[in-house]
UniProtKB/TrEMBL annotation, chain A:
Annotated Gene3D superfamilies: 1.10.10.410
EC number, UniProt record: 6.3.5.-
Gene giving rise to this polypeptide: gatB
Protein's UniProt keywords contain Ligase: yes
Pfam annotation, one family: GatB_Yqey
InterPro entries: Asn/Gln-tRNA_amidoTrfase_suB/E, Asn/Gln-tRNA_Trfase_suB/E_cat, Asn/Gln_amidotransferase, Asn/Gln_tRNA_amidoTrase-B-like, GatB, GatB_Yqey_C_2, Gln-tRNA_amidoTrfase_suB_CS, Gln_synth/guanido_kin_cat_dom
Protein name per Swiss-Prot or TrEMBL: Aspartyl/glutamyl-tRNA(Asn/Gln) amidotransferase subunit B
Keyword Oxidoreductase attributed: no
Species of origin: Isoptericola peretonis
Subunit structure: Heterotrimer of A, B and C subunits.
Cross-referenced NCBIfam families: gatB, PRK05477.1-2, PRK05477.1-3, PRK05477.1-4
Highest taxon listed in the record's lineage: Bacteria
Automatic annotation (TrEMBL), chain B:
Source organism: Isoptericola peretonis
InterPro entries for this protein: Amidase, Amidase_CS, Amidase_dom, AS_sf, GatA
Name assigned to this protein: Glutamyl-tRNA(Gln) amidotransferase subunit A
Enzyme class: ligase
Family listed: Belongs to the amidase family. GatA subfamily.
UniProt domain Amidase: residue ranges: 25-474
Subunit structure comment from the entry: Heterotrimer of A, B and C subunits.
Stretches of the chain forming a coiled coil according to its record: none
Catalytic site positions: K80 (charge relay system), S155 (charge relay system), S179 (acyl-ester intermediate)
Pfam families: Amidase
Keyword presence, Ribonucleoprotein: no
Protein keywords: ATP-binding, Ligase, Nucleotide-binding, Protein biosynthesis
PANTHER family named among the record's database cross-references: GLUTAMYL-TRNA(GLN) AMIDOTRANSFERASE SUBUNIT A, TRANSAMIDASE
From TrEMBL, chain C:
Family: Belongs to the GatC family.
Name assigned to this protein: Aspartyl/glutamyl-tRNA(Asn/Gln) amidotransferase subunit C
Transmembrane segments: none
Species of provenance: Isoptericola peretonis
Protein's job: Allows the formation of correctly charged Asn-tRNA(Asn) or Gln-tRNA(Gln) through the transamidation of misacylated Asp-tRNA(Asn) or Glu-tRNA(Gln) in organisms which lack either or both of asparaginyl-tRNA or glutaminyl-tRNA synthetases. The reaction takes place in the presence of glutamine and ATP through an activated phospho-Asp-tRNA(Asn) or phospho-Glu-tRNA(Gln).
InterPro entries the UniProt entry points to: Asp/Glu-ADT_sf_sub_c, GatC
Organism superkingdom: Bacteria
Subunit structure: Heterotrimer of A, B and C subunits.
Catalyzed chemical reaction(s): L-glutamyl-tRNA(Gln) + L-glutamine + ATP + H2O = L-glutaminyl-tRNA(Gln) + L-glutamate + ADP + phosphate + H(+); L-aspartyl-tRNA(Asn) + L-glutamine + ATP + H2O = L-asparaginyl-tRNA(Asn) + L-glutamate + ADP + phosphate + 2 H(+)
Gene transcribed to yield this protein: gatC
EC top class named in words: ligase
EC number: 6.3.5.-
Keywords: ATP-binding, Ligase, Nucleotide-binding, Protein biosynthesis
Length: 501, 500, 98
């Protein structure tokens, strides 16, 4: 049986005629020291199978014991997402056979998640806020990692096989499941991206995970369906698995909107299935159809007892929650006094932390913003890098600004100092000294240059003497040129006026 | 010289402590006995002679050096093959684990080793503890020392037969529906299923996690108490382990042996006698009740109507949990791997081929049954409903224990049946467990004490059940009954077993 | 008369990843009736007002401190493996993997 997918419908077209509904499941690996159910250490990049115990290998006889810190982290996440925390909940076994699942069941939570009924307001780039309702957040364990070894490359010539590393097996996960996200309309891809990004920021602030997308700490499954109008019943959805960057989340939604619209336009029906996302071209393709995929035979895990977080414990955790990203943005916005548009640009450029740290290093918010959103943004763009990846720290920018404020260098020289810092020549102070960029403050050489400039333009001298200070700029410009910009313009002006009398 | 194999564990321990024999001598005597009779009994799957003798020599040296030792130090023990032992085969009676050497010890094995008990070897059992006759072992039958043509009970027939045949003074069993108590009854030995959570399950190859419990298999009630105190108590590696300390068990056994049960209320469970029970079994049961009355106990009848549903609930819960627990045996990480005879060699097909070839009939039956009970749409009706019956059984126990201190019944409805008789009739086989299963469903402790021979000359057992965490009552009442019976008989029951 | 069909047994055996011979399927189709009988029996008393008991003893909140313990040595980890390569378990081709 072959189903030919009709050509994609242009995205703008598709969203004019269909209403997209998204649903997102995000898995986050918790940054606990040990695994969910055993004391094996978990860290990124360890040698294969060096972080296992009989429990995480699923050896006969081994039994799980819950990591209390992982439960606390799950509650933190639940509270940050405005969820209810269960009075009592249980773990359940999700039974399915797969070589990277050592027990051939995943210990998860089924009908009794630790957190449920929450919401998160996500802010799009233009400041629009969309509320995402959270159905549940539950605890579970990660699987190991398979590496496929193909035909001729492998040890067994011609055979296809896989190598399995169980270091990741049993790493604590929290899975966060949204309710259907409706009302996003044409902005569905942006909402999906902003939601995952907002979660990532929350995980970091809560200090429950390093939340590094590129390491797979945070993984998203994106559900999408289309319906004729917002009043129509929900359409058939597809689930695109393991979409592992913010940009990919956005692209996956766009692609599925276009693909499903084409199917519906052709009068065919969307097949409910899981799909794979392809980074190279942003497309999705069907996953393997498994006959028993949906029959997980869940039942309460008899080897574990219920988790019943006391209300005291929950309130204790709530009281120690850090300020969440959105609240912090609002507070900084007020403190810094930026215009709305300026603040949005700062956030979208990923400069919030940098500016906050630069302000902490002594710069004014305006100066800090000027550096990061101006000269540094320009250089980041040139290098196709993130601001945070530039080889300069907020503390160095603070130092640089102080050099300017104290008059030891001027703005123009400051750019040369930046060059030096970025080139790895040391901190701003070191670069100024090493490159001899300090503003010329000895009046001797300055006066020489001024006298030369005055002699060259007697007409201007006359005008100024006559009370018209306007043209004095031309003299100052000539002096600056003669001193290669290293003079303090303010001082030059003072000296010029003094000289002219 | 005394035959060291004929002593109880407590007697042997005293002999060792008094310096009248060494642990090496005691261990060698048991290894010799195994060599002499196990060809007929086949209680052992693996004999751990070198390591056992090394442990014995170490204990002897430590004793000679004046070190303070555990009361059972130097007393040899046999361990059911369902318990993982580092460096020793642990097959659970299954082909699928043939050749697997665990890289770790079960908690109870750690405790046994730390106390200096030489481990004689691993005992035979129904595959993955699924059975009541040990006929479902992939490695051949174990024979009942009372009659080699009969079953030794199951699943722990190997441990019970080893103890009954004087191959070991102590053994470890596991009991999911009666696998310690029923073999005890049919071999004339003592078997205890502790309160659920009383002995760590860490390192027990699980059948049904919410029912499994390890416990002692011995020839005397006191020996069981000694072993229970050694292996029991909290284990942080088992989430279902009881955090409180064990009640004083050895003390209860010693006190019970004095024979005074004044003030004790004994409840006879209406539902655990009558139809299906052999007349000889019932006759011995009523004689034992009289002995308890003579010792000062008050015997009353209590009704536990939900017990009639216990077997049905058990045969939903047990396979469901087992189907999931046994999923890990797939040929990927350890044990047997079998490739399909034709078609592509994929992980999925190798798993199915391995499990098809590696599991025996009874295991396949229960795994398929449990998978069915949990599969889409059936969970609530099957597993969920059975868990409700569990609640009802717990309520019946609570009501009965409000009026009594212990409940009693025959341990098994019949004496040992001939090998092969019920092999093809799983339902008849399952009925062996009718009296023992309620305790597993409710988590309460139970003991089987040998209380005579039926009309066919084969041993029968008397079951005592106590409330959860009141395991001491089993030992008090069990020891009182044992001493009353032995004064009637003039010798332990096992002295009447035929010579092997 | 069996109430569970051969097809049903075959479906469940596939779900349980057990290859069964035809004669085994036939036999199990008959023997699985025990579960149907059991459920009929259980349903007589398992009424909606009765709560389910999943654990024999009512423990809650059994947690472990988040403190690492030594891992199994890799040699031990792989000692029992039917096949291993480069410190990892070697398993047959997994369908659907790329």
């Amino acid at each position: 049986m072959s189903i030919t997918t009709p050509a994609l419908v242009a995205y703008d077209d598709a969203v004019r005629r269909y209403d997209p509904v998204i649903g997102i499941e995000v898995h986050v690996e918790l940054g606990t020291r040990t695994k969910m159910f055993c004391a094996a250490e978990q860290s990124f990049g360890a040698e294969p199978n060096t972080q296992t115990t009989p429990v995480s290998l699923g050896l006969p006889g081994a039994l799980p014991v819950v990591n209390g810190t992982a439960v606390e982290y799950a509650i933190r996440i639940g509270l940050a997402l405005n969820c209810q925390i269960a009075e009592s909940c249980r773990f359940a076994r999700k039974n399915y056979f797969y070589p990277d699942v050592p027990k051939n069941f995943q210990t998860s939570q089924y009908d009794e998640p630790i957190a449920f009924d929450g919401w998160l307001d996500v802010e799009l780039e233009d400041g629009t806020v969309h509320r995402v309702e959270i159905e549940r957040a539950h605890m579970e364990e990660d699987a190991g990692k398979n590496t496929h070894v193909g035909g001729s490359a492998g040890r067994i010539h011609g055979a296809e096989y896989s190598l399995v590393d169980y270091n990741r097996a049993g790493v604590p996960l929290v899975e966060i499941v949204t309710r259907p996200i409706t009302g996003a309309g044409e902005r569905a891809p942006e909402v999906a991206r902003a939601y995952v990004q907002a979660l990532r920021d929350i995980f970091r602030v809560l200090d429950v995970s390093e939340a590094r997308m590129e390491r797979g700490n945070v993984r998203a499954d994106v559900n999408l369906s289309l319906r004729a109008t917002p009043e129509s019943p929900l359409g058939t959805r597809t689930e695109t698995k393991n979409v592992n960057s913010f940009r990919s989340v956005e692209r996956a939604v766009r692609y599925e909107v276009s693909r499903q619209a084409a199917i519906l336009d052709a009068g065919e029906t969307v097949i409910q299935e899981t799909r794979h996302f392809h980074e190279e071209d942003g497309s999705t393709s069907p996953g393997r159809v498994k006959s028993d995929a949906e029959d997980y035979r869940y039942f309460p895990e008899p080897d574990l007892v219920p988790v019943a977080p006391s209300r005291e414990w929950v309130e204790e955790i709530r009281a120690t929650l850090p300020e969440l990203p959105q609240a912090r943005r609002r507070r900084l916005h007020d403190e810094w006094g930026f215009a709305d548009a300026e603040m949005r640009d700062v956030v979208n450029a990923g400069a919030l932390d940098l500016i906050e740290a630069t302000v902490a290093a002594g710069a004014t918010p305006a100066a800090a913003r000027k550096w990061w959103m101006g000269e540094l943004a320009r250089r980041a763009k040139q290098e196709e890098a993130e601001l945070a990846d530039l080889a300069i720290t907020p503390a160095q920018i603070g130092e640089l600004q102080q050099l300017v404020d104290s008059g030891r260098i001027n703005d123009k020289i400051a750019r040369q100092v930046l060059d030096g810092v970025l080139a790895g020549e040391g901190g701003p102070e070191e670069v100024v000294v090493a490159r001899g960029l300090e503003v010329v403050s000895d009046d001797g050489p300055l006066l020489e240059a001024i006298d030369a400039a005055l002699a060259a333009q007697p007409d201007i001298v006359e005008k100024v003497r006559g009370g018209n200070q306007g043209p004095v700029g031309a003299i100052i410009g000539a002096v600056m040129k003669a001193t290669k910009g290293q003079a303090d313009a303010k001082r030059v002006r003072e000296l010029v006026l003094e000289r002219i009398g | 010289m005394t035959d060291l194999t004929r002593l109880s564990a407590a007697e042997l321990a005293a002999t060792l402590a008094a310096g009248e024999a060494s642990s090496v001598e005691a261990t060698r005597a048991h290894l010799d006995r195994i060599a002499a009779v196990d060809g007929d009994v086949h209680a052992f799957l693996h004999v751990n002679d070198e390591d056992a003798l090394a442990t014995a020599a170490d204990v002897d040296a430590r004793r000679a050096a004046g070190e303070e030792l555990h009361p059972l130090a130097g007393v040899p023990i046999a361990v059911k093959d369902v318990v993982v032992t580092q460096g020793m085969p642990s097959t659970a009676g299954s082909k699928i684990l043939e050749g697997w050497i665990p890289p770790y010890d079960a908690t109870l094995v750690e405790r046994i080793r730390a106390a200096g008990l030489p481990i004689l070897g691993k005992t035979n059992m129904d595959e993955f503890a699924m059975g009541s006759s040990t006929e479902h072992s992939a490695y051949g039958n174990t024979h009942n020392p009372w009659d080699l043509d009969r079953i030794p009970g199951g699943s722990g027939g190997g441990s019970a037969a080893a103890v009954a045949a004087f191959e070991a003074p102590l053994a470890i069993g596991t009991d999911t529906g009666g696998s310690i108590r029923q073999p005890g009854a049919v071999t004339g030995t003592v078997g205890v299923k502790p309160t659920y959570g009383g002995v760590s399950r860490y390192g027990l190859i699980a059948m049904a996690s919410s029912l499994d419990q390890a416990g002692p298999v011995t020839r005397t009630v006191l020996d069981s108490a000694l072993l229970h105190e050694l292996i029991g108590g909290h284990d942080p590696r088992d989430s279902t382990s009881i955090p409180e300390p064990l009640p004083p068990l050895v003390e209860a056994a010693r006190q019970g042996a004095l024979g005074d049960l004044s003030g004790l209320r004994v409840g006879v469970v209406t539902q655990l006698q009558g139809e299906g029970y052999q007349p000889g079994v019932l006759a011995r049961f009523h004689e034992s009740l009289e002995l308890l009355t003579k010792a000062g106990a008050e015997v009353v009848e209590v009704s536990c109507p939900s017990f009639d549903y216990a077997l049905a609930a058990y045969y939903l819960i047990m396979p469901a949990e087992a189907s999931s627990n046994l999923a890990k045996f797939d040929g990927m990480r350890f044990g047997l791997r079998v490739e399909p005879t034709d078609g592509p060699v994929t992980a999925e097909r190798v798993m199915a081929a391995t499990r098809g070839a590696g599991f025996g009939d009874e295991v396949k039956r229960r795994v398929v049954l449990g998978t069915y009970a949990l599969s889409a749409g059936y969970y609530d009706a099957y597993y969920g409903s059975a868990q409700k019956v569990r609640t009802l059984i717990q309520r019946d126990f609570a009501a009965a224990f409000a009026k009594t201190d212990v409940l009693v019944s025959p341990t098994a409805p019949t004496t040992a049946f001939p090998l092969g008789e019920k092999l093809d009739d799983p339902l008849a086989m399952y009925l062996n467990d009718v009296a023992t299963i309620p305790a597993n469903l409710a988590g309460v402790p139970g003991i089987s004490v040998p209380n005579g021979l039926s009309d066919d000359g084969l041993p029968v057992g008397f079951q005592i059940l106590a409330p959860a965490k009141a395991d001491d009552r089993l030992y008090r009442v069990g020891a009182a009954l044992e001493s009353a019976l032995e004064s009637t008989w003039g010798a332990p029951l096992l002295s009447r077993a035929p010579e092997l | 008369m069996s109430t569970i069909s051969r097809d049903e047994v075959a479906r469940v055996a596939a779900l349980a990843r057990i290859d069964l011979r035809d004669d085994e399927v036939d036999r199990l189709a008959g023997e699985l009736d025990v579960i149907v009988d059991s459920i009929a029996r259980v349903r007589e008393v398992a009424t909606p007002d009765v709560p389910a008991t999943s654990h024999p003893l009512p423990l809650t909140n059994v947690f472990r401190e988040d403190v690492p313990a030594p891992a199994l040595p890799v040699a031990d980890v792989l000692a029992g493996a039917p096949d291993a390569q480069d410190g990892r378990f070697a398993v047959p081709q997994i369908l659907g993997e790329e």
